Amino acid sequence: MMPGFLRTSVRRKTLAVVLGTVFVALLVNAVVLLVFEVRAFREGHVIDLRTQAEIVGRAAAPALAFNDRKAADQDLLLLAGREDVTAAAVYDVKGTVFASYTQAGARPAPPQPSRPGYEFGRDSLEVFHPVMSGQENVGTVYVRASLGLEDRVLRYLGVLAATTALAFAVAWLLSSWLQRSLTGPIQDVAGAARVVVEQRDLSARAKKTTDDEVGLLADAFNRMLAELEREIGERREAEKELRTADQLKDEFLATLAHELRNPLAPIRNALYLLDAPRTDEAARARLRAMMERQLNQLIRLVDDLLDVSRITTGKLGLRRGHVDLLSVASSALESITPLARARGISVRAELPPQGCIVDADATRLAQLFLNLLNNAVKFSADGGTVEFSVSLEGADLIARVRDQGVGIAKEDLERIFQMFVQVDRSLERSTMGLGVGLALARRLAELHGGTVTAQSDGLGRGAEFRVRIPNVAIAVATDGLAQGQSPGLDDPGRRRILIADDNVDFAETLAIMLRSLGHEVHVVHDGETALARAAAIRPQVAFLDIGMPKMNGYEVAKLLRAGGSTRTAVLVAVTGWGQPQDRARALAAGFNEHMVKPVDIARVADFLRQVPA
Amino acid sequence: MDCGRRAAARRLRQRPDHALKLLIAAWLAFALPLHARAQALEHEVKAAYIYRFLSFVEWPADAEPKAKAPFVIGVDGADDVQSQLEEIAKDRRVGAHPLEVRRLRDVKNLRELQVLFVGQRAAALLPKLRGIRGLLVVSDADDALNAGATIALVRREERVRFSVALDDAEERGLRMSSRMLSVAEYVRGGKP
After folding, report:
1. Which parts of A443-599 are beta strand (E)?
2. Residue of A576, A569, A435 whose CA lies nearest to A498
3. Got the DSSP string for A358-369?
4. Closest chain A residue to B48 measured between Cα atoms?
5. Which of B161, B150, B160 is nearest to B185 (CA)?
6. What whole-number distance in Å separates Cα of residue A555 and Cα of residue A561?
7. Is residue B76 within 8 Å of residue B38, measured between CB atoms?
8. In this structure, what DSSP letter does residue A52 have?
9. In a 10 Å sphere around its CB, with 0-12 CB exposed, 13-18 middle and 19+ buried, how is residue B187 labelled?
10. DSSP symbol at A462
11. Which strand ranges, in their side-by-side order, compose the sheet holding A570-575?
């Protein structure tokens, strides 16, 4: 029965509980009343019949005392008026019947009296009562009365049954009425829950009609639904974003492969042509220039990739220092010049005077400018113009890169800063790039606490990218001051440099690049020689490979730091190991700087410019 | 039993003189003691009646016995009844007073009595007892009511009954219970 009961609805359950409770209460009530009624009835009858016997006894006392049977008969006739008295008798003091009365059809009184008292028979009550004359017991009175208890109990039961039925009916009506206010709200909540489960409709809400626990339940239910709806919505959104990101990544990988491969063919062709005996010197120069461009493109791609990976893993950090804004801007400008020149694009630069010092990471700031310039050049028509300006406004650094290229649709102004997003699909793949440049630029600005925004009058009307990095200026120099601060040497930029690397090609190319920048460069290919040469020439800067024969870079650095004449040299570790712990180890060994191969010549030039004379 | 009777009858027929003698002997043996027993029973009943009257009669306050004094029933001319009464009076009390039975020796002592039983032999005393306040006079003498008794005990059909003279009782300041009167054989006087 219980499982069946558990399955029925709340409405039926409460009805069953109410009616069950009412029924049990009424039943207990009826039983108790009945027991009390029967007891009271019997006690009342005992008292009544004793009184009757006492009265008859008093009346019959003289008759017994003076032996008058006729008078005793008369006295007993007093009882004949009572219908319930079925038999009565008076016994004399010896115990013989003195007078008796018996109702028609009833059992006569017993021939002998019993001891005084009362006794219940089957639906009858017998009383023996002593008759006193003064202090003398002169006899006994016997009275028997029918109780009519069964009749009475039956009538009583009838009344109880009727009242119980009435109470039951009233309770049923009342509980039905109450249920509407009690289970109605519960059913509302249950209905809402059913809609949610069956129709998967999370926008369903339970109606709150009361302020009690059910109201609380409805509120809690609704709040949970709202929460669920919101979270599921967020999850769908996140899934959508993930799918988009995944798609972007697929496209990115395809582009990347293409981009990486693109410069390789021209370089191989150029190498072949350089070896060919019929190629004249002018052609060789053009080929070298072309190779350099392609190589730079490759290096830039790989650098970008590394930065992307750093951004996604959150490892892109800044090494801030006091940086001359002019040198940073010039470095970016120098880097973009070959590409711009190749496409006949003129870059009009408006740079700050020397001596404008900002608190920034020189390399990253230059990269930021370069990325914007690269973007502007890429989307400009051949022979177009790109405007580049860098300045300080108060303590804020402002940079603008403006082109007259394809422009940006209004709705894409923000989207272009997302990683891997490429808005203009009309471009050829070869010029597309990876879709990371602007994202990187924005990220770098943000790392400096600044912003990059894009503006465009629409497609085909060019675009302007604006960088704003607040509160970075440390010194705003006039031209005169800047000149005064520069070191007073014949050629302030010229440095004596030692390069130690067992990779002969790398060492030589780096040497050629540094020499082209006007520096005095010495090249060695192992650690020991590096030490000896350093002691001899006392270089201002030494680029040391870590993995060298005979003595590795760390040891060389330690010994250079220990030696008197080489102690103050700026030591740069140049290595394939780019992990943070590699950097830490290099710095611990006494290096000032840690550069990862392939080394960007712009960065090296930039670095050398900051080395004190 | 039948055999015995027939045998006795045979003997009677055989000896008539004997039979007569036997009859006389039987009467002497049975009738006389029977009479004596009936007499004794009658005395017993009369004594009981006298005692029972006490609970149906109310004495005037001034005639009740003094504190600690006994409630006295006097008897004159009825030794048998007296002895029965003395038997009854043992350990009995009337109200707070012990019950005492005395033979009446001197008429002067009447004031000490609450009840006086006058036997047949002392019937002559009855007229002298008229109107004495607080004295219930009971008698089994002939025509006792007229002679001056308050309650007369009479024999009717082998039973002892009693009659009451309410006028006499009124004179003595005694009040008789109507319950007692309801079983009296005859009641004289009183309000109709």
Report:
1. 451-456, 463-469, 473-475, 496-500, 520-524, 541-545, 570-575, 593-596
2. A569
3. EEE-HHHHHHHH
4. A65
5. B161
6. 10
7. no
8. H
9. middle
10. -
11. A520-524, A496-500, A541-545, A570-575, A593-596
The reply to whether A71 touches chain B by the CB within 8 Å rule is: yes
| Chain B contact residues (CB < 8 Å to A) | 45, 49, 51-52, 54-56, 92-94, 159-162, 177, 179-180, 182-184
User: How distant is the Cα of B88 from the closest Cα of chain A, in angstroms?
Assistant: 11
Provide the 8-state DSSP code for A449. T
For helices A281-313 and A264-275, the axis angle rounded to 10 degrees is: 150
B179:A133 CB<8 A: no
Q: Using the beta-carbon criterion (under 8 Å), do A65 and B54 form an inter-chain contact? A: no
Interface confidence, given as ipTM, is 0.74
pLDDT, averaged across chain B: 83
Alpha-carbon distance of A420 to A432, in angstroms, equals 11
pLDDT digits (tens, 9 = 90+) for A146-204: 888 888 889 988 998 898 889 889 888 888 887 777 777 788 888 888 888 888 888 88
* H or E element at residue A399: strand A396-403
Report the sign of the C-alpha dihedral through residues B179, B183, B189, B192, in that order.
positive
Closest CA to A450 of A464, A463, A465: A465
Query: Could you give the CA distance from residue A553 to residue A585 in angstroms, rounded to a whole number?
Result: 11
Do residues A602 and A301 lie in contact, with contact meaning Cβ atoms separated by under 8 Å?
no
Which two tokens mark B14? 């055989």
Determine the Cα–Cα distance for residues A332 and A330; give it in Å rounded to an integer.
5
- Residue B188 pairs in a beta bridge with B165
The CA distance from A388 to A399, in Å, is: 7
3-state SS class at A469: strand
Residue in A54, A55, A64, A66 to test binding to B, most B beta-carbons within 10 Å: A66
| CB-nearest partner of B52 from A58, A65, A71 | A65
User: What sign has the CA pseudo-torsion A588, A591, A597, A603?
Assistant: positive
Q: In terms of C-beta density within 10 A (0-12 exposed, 13-18 middle, 19 or more buried), how is residue A472 classed? A: buried
* Cβ pair A469, A446 in contact under 8 A: no
Can you say how many angstroms the Cα of residue A298 is from the centroid of all Cα atoms in its chain?
A: 42
d(CA B135, CA B173): 9
Distance from the A63 Cα atom to the nearest Cα atom in chain B, whole angstroms: 6
Structure tokens at A498: 């030692």
For residue A123, give the 3-state DSSP assignment: coil
Mutate to test the interface with A, among B46, B183, B185, B186 (most CBs of A within 10 A): B183
Q: Which tokens in the block code for residue A223? A: 């709040």
Verdict on whether the full-model pTM lies above 0.80: no
Set of chain A residues whose Cβ sits within 8 Å of the Cβ of B52: 65-66, 133-134, 136, 138
- The answer to whether the CB atoms of A67 and B51 lie below 8 A apart is no
Is the Cβ pair A71, B51 closer than 8 Å? no
For residue B148, the number of C-alpha atoms closer than 13 Å in the C-beta half-sphere is 16
Measured CA to CA, the distance from residue B121 to residue B123 in angstroms comes to: 6
CB pairs under 8 A between A and B: 43
Task: Please name the helix (run of DSSP H) or strand (run of DSSP E) that holds residue A444, with its range, or none.
Answer: helix A437-447
Q: What is the band of A339 on the pLDDT scale with cuts at 50, 70, 90? A: confident
Quote the CA–CA distance of A464 and A35 in Å, as a whole number. Answer: 104
* Interval B146-177: pLDDT, tens: 999 999 999 888 889 999 999 999 999 999 98
